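Troubleshooting log. The previous structure file for this entry was overwritten by mistake, so regenerating from the original sequence record. Sequence copied from the archived sheet and checked twice against the printout by T.R.
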Amino acid sequence: MGVRTTDGIVKLLGLCLLAGVLLAGMMFPFVGGLGVMSNQASATVDNTSTDLANVPPPLVTTVTDAKGKSIATLYQQYRIPTASDQISDAMKWALISIEDKRFNEHNGVDWKGTVRAAISNTQGGDTQGASTLTQQYVKNYLINVVYWNDNNPKHLIGRQKAQEQTIARKLKEARIAVQLETKMSKKEILTGYLNIVEFSRRIFGVGAAARAYFGVSAKQLDAGQGALLAGMVNNPTALDPWNNPEEAKDRRNVVLDQMVGNNKLSEEDAEKIKEEPLGVLPGGPRKPPANCVGAGPDHGFFCQYVEDYLLRAGMDENDLYTGGYTIRTTLDREANKLAKDSAEFQVPKTEPNVANTLSLVKPGKKRHKVVALAANKDYGPDKSKGQTVYALPSDVKNLGGGGSTFKIFTAAAAMQEGVTGIHDKISAPNFHISPVFISGSPQEACPNTEQYCVQNYPGSSFGSSITLQDALAKSPNTAFVILEEKAGMGPVVKMAEKLGLRRSMAANGKGLSPDPKAEDNLLSSTQSEIYGPNGLWPGSGSFTLGPAAVSGLELANVAATIMSGGMWCPPSPIAEVTDRNGNSVKIQEEPCERVIPKGLADTLAVGLSKDHTGGTATGAASQVGWDRPMIGKTGTAQNAQASTFVGATPQLAGAAMVFRPDSPIGSLCYAGPGNVRACDLGTGNMQGARTPAATWFDAMIKIHENLPKKDMPKPDPRYTRMNGDN
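Regenerated output below.
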């Protein structure tokens, strides 16, 4: 027997087997899983049908401001859900004409075409599909909905199986299609298909495609537009009208001819449309950015914090970008604009390696709402245009430190530990060599000792002693190092955590999660461990002078905690989250907690109430005519690497910080508003009373313009005098 004869017999046997398999498939609606289909195969079909019913398509998540106005969209697939009556008849008939003329006649499978295609494929001919729209709906749903995630290995395998050119896959797809037509009407299937099919460039569904391609709704699509989109589903990338206009036009014209043959378009109209251009929007599809860049230069930092906050609260990132949520935030657009205008007025956005940020939080005993997160930099990917996607206001990005704003924690701890009250006098010598803290090496100011040596700002004089309230306003360094010695580093560092520096103190010295494998303590340990009572860092007494990496938002929340009577709440950007069906979604936020007694908080607020009237921030306050009660504290990091101002009224708390975001080692030089630059280490003259205080007061006086003046809380006598160093 010859080889040719043997091959013929094998093919004949294969075709006979195939005929039996297809016959079983055709009989499926009547005999279920009998015949050649095993129970396992039937279970697979049932599971897939369940996926089609229970796995919703990826939708766009919308982020809004406090009033519900959209600021950004987050998505993996740009899709606008569209009902049947929101899609033009021209679009529907274009798709049916080119993909499945007998769509309204079959029961989900065109068996004649399936047999023909299967025989052709088995005989080694050209691969043929013969899939109905119902079968295509099944396939596209599996690819674009059930197994959409390219980063998930299980999804990749699922997509591969959904696209296999095998008889088994075709038969399974056919059986699911038949099942689907028993559960869904033709109108529902057609609408479902038009909502999940891809039109290239992450555009899915006809609603999004109509907007992106032509700037119209799906209801407004005419025959030419519908023909172009219907033709694309065959191969969206190859028929992209911007990259391949001639191929797209040829395919559109084929669809028009099919519409004529299907009696859904006159030949005269078809020929007229063929002469017209494609009509797509110039320059590419019009669709919103897929992430927080879409929030623009003003609101991008706030959007980024919303995303980070939700992920830390336990929301899955894929779910956030595909769930179709509406996230109403606490963003006050006007306050955010004023904050950004002020930050950018002080430091131009294109100034290299200088970030100026302002974070605003509302005090409250039940919630601390984040109102604004602004920076001189624009939010975006183009560094040459003064853009960045680093979360400058909210993340632990100021590696230069908060400077003397950390004296707030020392004062609070000293009051808590019974060391001193706000009206007690404390020692404030010009120099102080600590008997407690070790620097680890001789210092310029005290060359003959390795003990930690500290001095006050050159030219300042406070006498031998000063009240704690005046010390908070005038900021002598020695006074607060001495208070640290008496209160202990444990209570001081713990106070920083309690009042609000949660993520800051949990980060390492570079503002990142500690790396336990790193040999350097700055990298392997948290800042609480570095500066805490175990003293991992030589000279941990410097903590009160603010060398630790810090988040501007968390520092603003410290002020909010004080003005809330000692109630800490997470700085929340979330007002409400609803799902795709409009149902409220519970976010797992940290609960508010009392971290210090109300009397201590109120008295600390009074202690911080003189910085703008007789302290370091007096000049900045008088420059704008500030006349409201408030708390405030300036801070300048060592060598002017960074500077800070933190303050609050009873209605609003905020922290302004200027620092070096790209190369933190160095100084900042100040020559007036709009003239701030990064300069060599040790040559800087930046102070918290300059750029940060000016940024804070310029924005806050405008934000408070229509708000009533409110008095400061009354001090608790238990914390005003404790017989300290009088």
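Residues 9-19, 23-44 have pLDDT under 50 and may be disordered. Archived copy saved in two places this time.
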